[in-house]
What we know:
By secondary structure, the protein is of the alpha+beta class.
Amino acid sequence: DIPIQQQDALEEKYIGETAWTRALIMDIGNNGVIDRGTEVEIVELDMHWKGAVGVKGPGNHKYRHALKLDRPLTTEKYEEAINRLFWFDKPTKRYRMNLRKYGKRTARAIRDEELFKGMPREAALESWGYPDEMRSTDIGGVEQEQWIYRDPRQQNKKSYIWLVDGEV
């Protein structure tokens, strides 16, 4: 779906880049799962079917993660998926940026992948990454969201975040 020249440009931009996982990376094969916050190297971009990304992870094992993009694939959809999966700034730089943006308490919580009551929505996304499922309702002018996170290693376990008017 993505023209060859744009595929080449995406590969040039991302292949060989060091990144840190922003979400769980689930291998299509048998290598398992890479946790959030793990340093990886992007080694492959698959721009066929619904897209995939290959990384070299812990123990130099290769992991292929399905992106599950809606067709037709576009450069924008692909880049959005990559940026939901990875950070490209070192953790120390992200901490400093969050310190300036949110202050010490929130920056530490993000660094430690923690949440607290009153934490802004954007900071919760930085801390836990994008959820597997988002549900939202508006009750009497109050926006409420429920974020659901699944871990494939524990089929029956889910973690939830509830937000009211944009705060945890």
